[in-house]
Design a protein that fits this description.
By secondary structure, the chain is an alpha+beta fold. It has two domains: 2-36; 54-146 and 181-294, no CATH class. It has helices spanning 2-25, 30-36, 54-57, 74-79, 120-134, 153-157, 181-194, 197-203; strands at residues 65-66, 90-91, 97-98, 104-107, 142-144, 150-152, 160-165, 168-173, 205-206, 218-221, 227-236, 243-249, 258-260, 272-273, 279-282, 285-288, 292-294. Strands 1, 4, 9, 10, 11, 12, 13, 14 and 17 form a nine-stranded antiparallel sheet that branches. Helix 5 (120-134) packs antiparallel against helix 7. It is globular. The termini are far apart.
Length: 299
């Protein structure tokens, strides 16, 4: 009798273990469950709301893998840009809200300032400047004014300030040396005042073939007005040979940087399919793939 009781208890314990194993193996964490339900049924892309950076928040489409990037590169910096909490709205410089309306999927957690200055090209320059400042590459931080004159952070940090009269720019000593982040931000504000898509477009170099795209490249139309968006991530499909990319922008009036939706292809949005030629339709501007450019000193 005692032996039968032992066998009965053993059988009950075994059944309990099997039941609990099956139950927990079929459960998803809240994190996973939310992620799987963020996109329309057709979409190949998952959004992970708890992800705090671009690469942690936005998955790649089916059968794609993110391209490899070097540590401490501009590409890694952009791919890992911090994001505001999922569902956040873009704010204009004056605190007003820009509704998504299928324009953006995520908001980059970088302030826009309180003046109507950090618009499209300014956001591109801000990201480039932030990256170079982070790694102490002060001499590489320089942007051109609309006049064509170069404004170097190293000169600004040494106390030199521009005196501008029409298209004539001269520099004079006006302050003590200051390489602080606060002074870097003042330098960037100065750049925003005197530069734009026209000057940035002339400063960048053409990417001769869009197929040679890198993270950090910029689609830009230099004009008054013009527009610019920056490639912040890329992924490749080894089977099909296709490449996709993510875009970020600011716009007019000055507003927080945002990761754009792709309204032409809901299956892979917010990713865009790389093509050699043709039109690139973004929510607020149409570019040509031949409008692709990059900074001279690379990514």
């Amino acid at each position: 009798m005692r032996g039968k009781n032992i066998k009965l208890w053993f059988s009950l314990i075994l059944l309990f273990i099997i039941w609990t194993s099956c139950t927990f193996s079929n459960q998803k964490t809240d994190f996973e469950e939310v992620a799987l339900n963020q996109n329309p049924e057709k979409s190949e892309v998952k959004v992970f709301p708890q992800g705090k950076t671009i690469n942690a928040r936005i998955s790649v489409p089916s059968n794609f893998e993110r391209i490899n990037v070097e540590q401490k590169s501009f590409a890694e910096f952009l791919r890992t840009l911090p994001l505001k909490p999922h569902g956040s709205k873009v704010l204009y410089y004056n605190g007003e809200v820009k509704e998504s309306e299928d324009i953006y999927l995520a908001v980059v957690d970088i302030d826009v300032g309180d003046k109507d200055l950090q618009q499209c090209a300014d956001a591109v320059m801000r990201l480039r400047g932030e990256y170079l400042f982070k790694y102490g590459e002060y001499e590489q931080i320089h942007f051109n004014f609309t006049s064509g004159d170069t404004a170097k952070f190293i000169s600004y940090a040494m106390g030199y300030r521009p005196q501008i009269s029409g298209n004539d720019v001269s520099w004079y000593k006006a302050a003590a040396d200051d390489y602080s982040y606060e002074n870097f931000r003042k330098y960037m504000t100065m750049v925003f005042r005197w530069a734009g898509t026209h000057s940035l477009s002339r400063e960048l170099v053409d990417v001769k073939n869009a197929a040679e795209m890198n993270i950090g490249d910029i689609f830009i139309f230099g004009g008054f007005p013009g527009h610019a968006v920056i490639v912040v991530d890329m992924a490749h499909n080894q089977l099909s040979g296709e490449t996709v990319f993510l875009l970020a922008q600011s716009y007019m009036p000055a507003q927080e940087i945002q990761v754009l939706c792709n309204n032409d292809n809901a299956d892979i949005s917010p990713w865009y399919l790389l093509k050699d030629t043709g039109i690139l339709k973004t929510p607020e501007w149409d570019f040509r793939f031949s409008d692709l450019k990059r900074f001279k000193n690379g990514n």
